[in-house]
Every structure is written in C-alpha cells, then in structure tokens.
C-alpha cells in the first residue's frame, strides 16, 4: 500500500521548520512556529474557536477507539475540575498483546532514519496544532487550567516543547555521519582503509507517564524525544487527565499510518484510578525509557527500580524567591502576585517560599519592614484577583481534593497574611476556585521549618522571615540541595547579594530569574530558550530539553568493512 | 601568583588541535595528533626511547609524592607481569581530608569556562605524549602488554581517546551559547525582552576506577570527560596497575598548577590489594560521576548502589565471530589468528566464540569442513607465533594467575584444536607467556553451552559447531542479548547472511566488523572514528566516546533578567 504522505513531501513541508528549530536551540533567541493567539487559528485547515469547541463538545458519550491491538476493556470516568463529566472511554490494554504489537514496526521506523522520523513527528505536531482549540478544552477540563492558559500552555507551548525535543533528537543523531571513509597511512605500505556505516538504533519502547496538571506540556518532550530517536512510545496518562494524551496518540497513529509506518509505534493504555499500572509497566524488560512527571516518591521508586530503563523524572521541589531590595517595588509586587496566582499555584515552577529579611527590605519607595512587604504583597494579589472574571481567568480550578485540603490546612501553619477566598465561576458553578493563601513563618523556628521545607503544592506560599540576607542565601542553598527546586527567583539591587544568589544557583544547579518586574514570570519558561529545571538538583534528573535528555534514548551501531 | 601558562597561550597553542579533533569526531575520518612510531619521539621536548627508558628506570625505590593533602600512608608493591618489582610507592588518601580539598578549586575551574578547560586538558595530554616512551614501560610492566603494544595502546591511542573525550565535552558545553538576548513580540505593546546567561556547572567529583589491563586507554576517556566538564577527578587505580595513572595524575597536577588552578582538582588514591576502597568511595555523596572498567559483578553493583552518581561502566561480554564464507580464506585465517593472539587475548574486544556451521564453510579455496577450518586456524596461529621473538612481541605476558588458571582449565572443556604453549621471554624469564588455546565445542550440547555462554577472559577461544547459519545468527543474538558484546565479527560472502548478522547487531546494539582480512582487527578501535562498545547491550552502559558519555557530566544553569 502506498503511503498517503511520502517522505519527500514531509521533508519538503517540514524541513524549514526543523532547521529553524535547530537554529533556535543554538542561539536560544525567541522563536515559535505555534501561534499563541486564539484568533490565529481557523485558516489553512486549522480549527477556529467555534470548530474547536464543537469538536470537544462532540466527545462526550464516545469511545476513543484507537484501533489498538490488545484492548481488553474500556475505561474512562474523567470528571473535569470544572465539574462536568467528560464521559469518554479509552482503551485499557492487555499489555502482553499490545507491547509485542508495538515492536513490529520498529525496524521500519529505525531504517527510516533521523530526518524522516523528525518530519513525521513535525507532521504529528502540525495536526495537533491545527486542533489547538479542541486540545485547549481537553486540557482545561482535565487540568483545571483556565481556558486561556490551557490554550497556550497546553497548545502552542506544549507543541513548542515537543518540537524542541525533536530538534535535539535530530541534532544528536546526525552528529555522527551515516557513513565514513577511514584511511590510515602506513608509511610505504598501502594505507589501511575501511568503510564505516553508522546507524542510530532505538533502545526499545519508551513509556510516558503523564501528569494531571500539564498532560501535554509535560508529556510531549519525552514522547517526541523517544519517538524521534526511533523508539516506540506507550503513553500511560494520569487517570484524571487522559483525554489530551489520548487525542495526541490518535493523531500520532493517524500520521504514522498515513506515512506508511505501523501506527502501533505509538499507543495508549488508560487505567482505572488506583490500578497502579505504571509500576507494572515500568519494570517490564521491553520498556527501555521512562519519562515521568509527578510525585517525588514514585519518581524515586522509578529511578531505583526501573533499572532496565533510562529514567527521566520531574519530581517535586521547593521553589524559593529571595527578596532583598528592588528599584521597582510596584513591579516586583505585581510580578510576584501574578506568579503566585497563575493556575492557583498548581505549577511545579510556582514560588513557595519568599525569604525576606526580618529587618525589612529597601525599595524605591523607601524601606519596607517584613510585615509591610507581606501586607503589600497581599494587597497586590487582592488587587490582581479583585474582579471575579479576571480571577477565574487567572486561577482556573483546583485540580483535586488534595490540593484543596492542603490549602485549607495551610492557614493553620502560621499567621495568615492573605486569606484564601472562594470565587464563583458563573459558567461552571461546581468548579472549586480559590485565591492563594500567604502565611507568615519564622525561618528560625523549627516548627515553621517543617512547613517551609516541604513542598505544599497548590495556592500556598510562605513569607519566611530570616535574620539576614546571608541567612536567606544559606537557606536558599539548603532548600535547593535538600529539596530541589525547579525555579529560584531573587530581587536585589545589591551586586554582592546578586553574586551570592548566583553562586548558590550555580553550585546547586538551579535556574535563576533575577529582578523580574514586567511580563515575564519566574514560573514560566519558553521552549528553545529556557531550560525547564536543571536536572542537577533533587527536583528533577533531567532538563527539558538538552543533549542529555536525548543522547541516551538511542545508541549508534557501527558496521565497518574493508574499503 | 601569576600563572606560568596563561589561558591565552594555551588557547593559541592548542586551539588548532581542538578544532581538528572536533572536525574528526564529525567526519569520523582517520586522524590523530599522537605519533604511533617510537622513533617519532625525541624532538621538541619529547623523550626519545633511551630517555624514556631512563626515566622509567629511575623510578624503582622512589615515592611518587604528588603533594596531595590528606595522605595518611604510602602504598605500593606492584609486581610486573614480566616478573620485576616496581618498588614505587603512592599516596594512600585520608579521603575525609582529600575530598574536601579537591572541592576548593572547583569554582575557579568552573568559571574558567569550556575552552580554557579544554586547552588545559590538551596541555596535560601533550605533556603525557612527550613522555610516551616512559609511559610505555609503565603500561608494559603493569598490564603485561608487550612493549610495542604498551607503547601504542597505552600511549598515542590512549591519548587519542582522552582528546576525543575533551572534544566531545567541549562541543557539548558550547551547544548552548554563553549568553542570549530573547525578545518576544507582544503585538502593539513593547516586546518582552530578557538577557540570559548560561553556565556549564560540574556535577561534583568524578571517580575513575582503573583497570589492570589498559590503565591509560580505559582510564583517560572518563578522566578527561569529567575534568573538561568542570568536575574534579579522583583516580583510584587497580592495585596492580597504579604507575601509569599515578604518572598521569602527576602531570595533570603540574599542568593545573602551572595554569593557575588548584592542583587538587585531580588526585590519586592508591590502595592495598583487597582493601576495596572503590566501594566506599563510590557511594560518598561528593562523588557524582563514576567511570569504571572491570568485572560485571562490580559494575552491576555500582549501577545499583552508587545512586548519587552518574555511572559509566565497561563490564564483561562474550564476543562472537560468525564464520560462514569468505573469498579470502588465507586473509581471514591470518586476521583471526592475530586477533586471538594479540596481548594473549586479554582484551575486552578479543573474539571468544567462533560460530561455524557444522557442515563447513565455503571459501575461495573450496569448501572447508568445521574440522578443516579449526585445523587451518590452529595452523595460522601456530605460524604467526612460531618464532619466539615474534610470539613474545605479540602475546606479552599473562597479567595475573587467574587468567593462567582459566587458560589451563579451558583445555578440559572440549576437544583441543590448538593447545597452548609456554614461550620463554629471554629478557624477562619470570614472565608467564602462553599461546592461545582453541577448544572445539558443540553449540547444541548443554554442557558446552555453559562454557561458551560465559566470558573466559584470556587466550581462550571456542570453535562452536552450529547446525546452520540461521542457528549461528540466533546464537549470536542470544549471546549479545544475554551476555553482551564489545565486538562482533562476521565472515560471509552471502548478502542474505550479511543482512541477517547486521540486523542482529542493529537490534541488539553491537558493533560489527565484516570480512576483515587485512591489517585492521576486530579487537581494535580507533578514536575519533570507531565507537568502543555501544552502551546498548549488557557489556557496557556507555560508548567511548559519544554525546551521552559527556552530556550528563555537567548541567547548564541559566540566569535570566530583564534586558
């Protein structure tokens, strides 16, 4: 059967984008081929807002039959954090049937080579991009993100991260040429001459273990890095966030088939809540790569037990912002207020601990005591979220009851500088929407330390009074070293303090944002330019995306013979 | 104190070599800056043969005082496989003193950046290269390699592997620019603009655990990969092969000091036989990278237990040559005879199992039965080693009593096609020199399988009769999958068989040499062109050297601020 999409067509269509991505990861200047604005969609085959919404609305009551072998059952039951039942069912796999079927197409996929694999991946991303509006609703109603965030972070930003992984994977594979002629002089005798052929070979099957809060953004780097390096990929979504990844697998299977490859190179297995299938899958011998985003405990378990696999984890951390001084007090407050509020703080990059000298900070509006600063920050958050419509658009919904419980318990940990409020979402009255709580703690009190040295995932932050900026720097160091951090922020106009914070971040391998007062936030990273985590502290063993994230997903096999 | 060697001088001196190395790993054509011929040394500051020998001869009775902090004792006692006592003593470290001292210089080393680190490494390699004749004796009298092999493999080839690691490390670090300006358009509003600085930061301290047979060749890739990526490096040599790595550490410390860096960035700790210090060191929190060459059991232990570190291992494997057909029977026999004989088969790349169809093979000299082939191969080895002087020059000495015991036991495993002979070394009468044994086994007999499916390190090979070439291919697959392989060889004139062997090697990630009949041997690899192992089968989890070997030895920390 002739492929609908030939390699030649795909290369012609996508090679320029691949080349731009390769250039972007080299210069790390701003670049993205995926529009952020909802109105940019609707032409050239992409769904506009209405069509995307209609596609999403057609899903309830349906079975997402991916045509996979070894489907022994259908599972579903997702309930949106906005209160609606998604009522879509997905394949539950008999993995003893599915996994062997996934291997059948690997040889052809390997032999296709890095460039064809890259452009097939780009075609998958293109078709996902065309359906960004539909995906936005799917991400919104599984993660609880507000629509605009689900649209951007779950759409173009996630697609950027996928494309970035494809670019790194391609670049890594072609560092070694396909063939080489090797001729070694032997003085007066004939030279030794060999012809060598180098082939990128996959590890086997990559397992992507999805998360609840960013199913596409956190899922795409590993999925595309493994696929682009020749591996088959089995996607095991979080039971509460299946839909975005199920749609992704559907698109990937369609594109693979259209390009003449076995669609079983990408497959999905959904599970019932509490089934714990990830643990069983993760130690199967066929699974040679694992990408995981989630709790530290299961991440540590994977690293310790899935010894047959390359394991890439993003776990929990405790993110710190050190507040020492600023020449733009208002900008600092509004920047921080936004970071604490966005998606109700349910980001692995949201700041948790604000370390503030007990004696206060210096600002362009004069000195501010610790209490003044916390009060001003509370006012800034209140101001930002004062309007309910705006609050709903920023906060989204609380993703699960655990987050709500933590938020409620947090008020008992210390003096509350800003109490959490309930917000009503008129469109989705069952959504649990809460503003962030800010609790004051004392850095020197052991009881308080138990709170601020643990991750409290959700809309909870701690204003921690410390004796001096030196103590703040040391607490920052200890926090990153012991608990890990996806992000560190700092506000200081003092060169020496800036240098001290930088030193800690360089020594403990944490990514630092300095003096952000405008429209870039410590909890946001941009593909092709920012690394997401460093892979060098306990919060994550990988950085999205760098050479180390892709280089061990394949091996290079050499066949040499006399020339 | 001003540095004797400025960064500027070192860059001017070594940048052209670095650039050539970068080009070589990209094209994988033949290249080396390190001469293979002993007579090439003696000018421009390098020691000629006599001066190198004199330097080595001056060592006995000396204490190699490296000036390291925390030296609590002196240990030595190496006895050359050629029978002489080396009588050199080395620092035994109080690691609680040494390790903190090694960290003191890390910040300056980090801040020096990738290029300065690379050229400092190249200066170390240059000074080692100048003393190649001295190192040759040191490698000969610890590994048991014959002089010429110790000279080449322990000298220029090892230096090539070190330089290759520096080139990969440099390339990996500069894939991300030092700084970037990131400007994101915002429609009619001002663009978002950030200035980003990216810094390569080390993991911590790299531990190099040396081996007995190739102390420099197997030690240099990890040592230089870790050092060039900003880590300090602690070298723990094999108790019977300390001298070559101790001299290496001495040179490295001299160069670091001369370039204005802390010499403690590279240190040595020798141990008493049986002390087992590697196990204690490997799990210390400061040790973040481990490079190991040696037994499968300890390699597996490291991978399972040194969880705080990136662990790169080269362990044991069972190397196979599949013999099906040839159009150069004589060339095949002489090529195989050389591979089996070189360094008495004490190479991780030496073929062990020769899989031969029971019904025989086809050749340009007519069909040969299994027995005819084994007899002809035995004759070829006999012919190669018939002259004692030539035999000594090829075989070297048996490195330790375990190898001798295995060789002696091998004769009892099956019908002996070629018996091992004792050779006298007139210069070193105490050397244990033995020619290889070839034992015939039956691929279908379970008792024989126990022999050929285990690594029998040393001058032992098995001619394994198999029912068909299909069986041979399947046995090859099973051997690589279950036992691992550093090398695979095959002789066939049949396209289908060639394809089947290639498929196995691609699927099981093994490096394949096809139809070698001239002066290149399956057990030899060339830096900058061949990978040593694939890192994808049980024989090794890393390939020397590729992107994966260097990419996770450092992390990239980003500091971003508003532009």
From TrEMBL, chains A, B:
It comes from the Bacteria. GO terms for biological process: L-proline catabolic process to L-glutamate. Keywords: NAD, Oxidoreductase. SUPFAM superfamilies: ALDH-like. Gene3D superfamilies: Aldehyde Dehydrogenase, Chain A, domain 1, Aldehyde Dehydrogenase, Chain A, domain 2. One of its GO terms (molecular function) is L-glutamate gamma-semialdehyde dehydrogenase activity. One of its GO terms (cellular component) is cytoplasmic side of plasma membrane. Residues 92-528 form the Aldehyde dehydrogenase domain. InterPro entries: Ald_DH/histidinol_DH (IPR016161), Ald_DH_C (IPR016163), Ald_DH_N (IPR016162), Aldehyde_DH_dom (IPR015590), PaaN_2 (IPR011975), Proline_metab_enzyme (IPR050485). PANTHER family: DELTA-1-PYRROLINE-5-CARBOXYLATE DEHYDROGENASE 1, ISOFORM A-RELATED, DELTA-1-PYRROLINE-5-CARBOXYLATE DEHYDROGENASE 2, ISOFORM A-RELATED. NCBIfam families: PaaN_2. This is Phenylacetic acid degradation protein paaN. It comes from Streptomyces echinatus. The lineage of its organism: Bacteria, Bacillati, Actinomycetota, Actinomycetes, Kitasatosporales.
């Amino acid at each position: 059967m002739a492929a609908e999409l030939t390699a030649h067509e795909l290369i012609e269509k996508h090679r320029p984008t691949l080349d731009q991505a390769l250039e972007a990861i080299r210069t790390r200047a701003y670049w993205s081929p995926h529009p952020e604005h909802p109105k940019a969609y609707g032409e050239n085959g992409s769904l506009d807002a209405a069509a995307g919404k209609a596609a999403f609305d057609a899903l309830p009551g349906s079975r997402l039959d991916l045509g996979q072998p070894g489907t022994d059952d259908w599972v579903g039951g997702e309930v949106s954090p906005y209160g609606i039942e998604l009522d879509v069912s997905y394949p539950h796999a008999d993995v003893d049937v599915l996994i062997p079927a996934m291997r059948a197409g690997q040889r052809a996929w390997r032999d296709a080579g890095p460039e064809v694999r890259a452009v097939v991946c780009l075609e998958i991303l293109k078709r996902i991009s065309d359906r960004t509006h539909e995906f936005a609703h799917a991400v919104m109603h599984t993660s609880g993100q507000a629509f605009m965030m689900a649209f951007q972070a779950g759409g173009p930003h996630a697609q950027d991260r996928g494309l970035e992984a494809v670019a790194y994977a391609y670049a890594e594979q072609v560092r070694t040429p396909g063939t080489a002629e090797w001729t070694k002089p032997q003085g007066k005798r004939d030279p030794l001459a060999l012809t060598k052929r180098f082939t990128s070979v996959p590890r086997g099957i990559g397992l992507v273990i999805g998360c609840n809060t960013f199913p596409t953004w956190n899922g795409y780097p590993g999925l595309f890095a493994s696929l682009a390096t020749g591996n088959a990929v089995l996607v095991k979504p979080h039971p509460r966030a299946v839909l975005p990844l199920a749609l992704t697998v559907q698109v990937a299977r369609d594109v693979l088939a259209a390009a003449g490859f076995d669609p079983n190179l990408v497959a999905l297995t959904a599970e019932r809540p509490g089934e714990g299938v990830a643990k069983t899958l993760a130690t199967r011998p066929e699974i040679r790569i694992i990408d995981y985003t989630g709790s530290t405990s299961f991440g540590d378990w994977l690293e310790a037990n899935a010894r047959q696999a390359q394991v890439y984890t993003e776990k929990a951390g405790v993110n710190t912002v050190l507040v020492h001084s600023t020449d733009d007090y208002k900008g600092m407050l509004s920047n921080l207020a936004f970071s604490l509020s966005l998606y109700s703080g349910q980001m692995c990059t949201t700041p948790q601990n604000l370390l503030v000298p007990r004696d206060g900070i210096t600002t362009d509006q004069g000195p501010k005591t610790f209490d003044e600063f916390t009060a001003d920050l509370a006012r800034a958050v209140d101001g930002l979220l004062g309007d309910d419509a705006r609050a709903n658009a920023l906060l989204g919904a609380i993703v699960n009851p655990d987050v709500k419980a933590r938020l409620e318990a947090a008020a008992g940990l210390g003096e509350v500088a800003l109490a959490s409020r309930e917000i009503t979402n008129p469109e989705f009255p069952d959504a649990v929407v809460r503003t962030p709580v800010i609790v004051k703690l004392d850095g020197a009190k052991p009881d308080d330390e138990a709170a601020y040295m643990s991750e409290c995932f959700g809309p909870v932050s701690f204003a921690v009074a410390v004796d001096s900026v030196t103590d703040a720097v040391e607490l920052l160091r200890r926090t990153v070293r012991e608990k890990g951090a996806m992000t560190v922020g700092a506000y200081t106009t003092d060169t020496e303090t800036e240098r001290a914070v930088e030193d800690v971040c360089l020594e403990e391998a944490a990514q630092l944002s300095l003096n952000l007062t405008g429209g870039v936030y410590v909890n946001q990273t941009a593909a092709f330019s920012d690394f997401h985590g460093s892979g060098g502290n306990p919060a994550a063993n990988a950085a999205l995306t760098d050479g180390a994230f892709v280089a061990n997903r394949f091996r290079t096999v050499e066949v040499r013979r006399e020339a």
